Automatic annotation (TrEMBL):
SUPFAM superfamilies to which the protein is assigned, alphabetical: Cytochromes
Keywords: Electron transport, Heme, Iron, Metal-binding, Signal, Transport
InterPro entries noted in UniProt: Cyt_c/b562, Cyt_c_II, Cyt_c_prime
Molecular function per GO: electron transfer activity; heme binding; iron ion binding
Cross-referenced Gene3D superfamilies: Cytochrome c/b562
Signal peptide range in chain numbering: 1-20
UniProt PTM comment: Binds 1 heme group per subunit.
GO biological process: electron transport chain
CC annotations in GO: periplasmic space
Residues where heme c binds: 133, 136-137
Protein name, entry field: Cytochrome c
């Protein structure tokens, strides 16, 4: 009887850990989707497909900055190899460098937020922010 209780407890613990791991992956994927939505809006403005909008730009930069701060802890070692993720093992093999990219993205977003006042400054500063996204995707994300 004691053995059955111990086994049941261990199984529950394992299930709880799997659910927690899944939740972490879902949280980071949600934040990445927010990045994507903001990037599409910004890219449209950069390409001239949508008019420059300072309020949208500021909102996008705030979203990116906020998410960049939240994301590093959402890549714990326990999620390495998790299903339904595009994160490459390189994330955990070079975790310090990976985390630095988020810090760089946050810093670039904050700088752009302070400097962008019109379309000219937008076109000068926004590529610096988006460069961080490309660097991360090339190194740490499945194609």
């Amino acid at each position: 009887m004691k053995r059955a209780i111990i086994v049941a407890g261990l199984m529950t613990l394992g299930l709880t850990a799997a659910i927690a791991q899944s939740n972490i992956v879902e949280q980071r994927q949600d934040l990445m989707k927010q990045f994507g939505a903001q990037s599409r809006t910004i890219a449209g403005m950069l390409r001239g497909q949508a008019p420059f909008d300072l309020a949208q730009t500021q909102a996008a930069l705030k979203t990116v900055s906020d998410a960049a701060k939240k994301l590093p802890p959402l890549f714990p070692e326990s999620t390495k190899g998790a299903e339904k993720t595009d994160a490459l093992p390189t994330v955990w093999e070079s975790k310090a460098e990976f985390d630095k990219l988020f810090a760089s993205l946050d810093a670039a977003s904050q700088t752009a937020l302070a400097k962008i006042t019109d379309e000219a400054s937008f076109k000068a500063e926004m590529p610096k922010v988006l460069q961080n996204c490309g660097t991360c995707h090339k190194t740490y994300r499945k194609s």
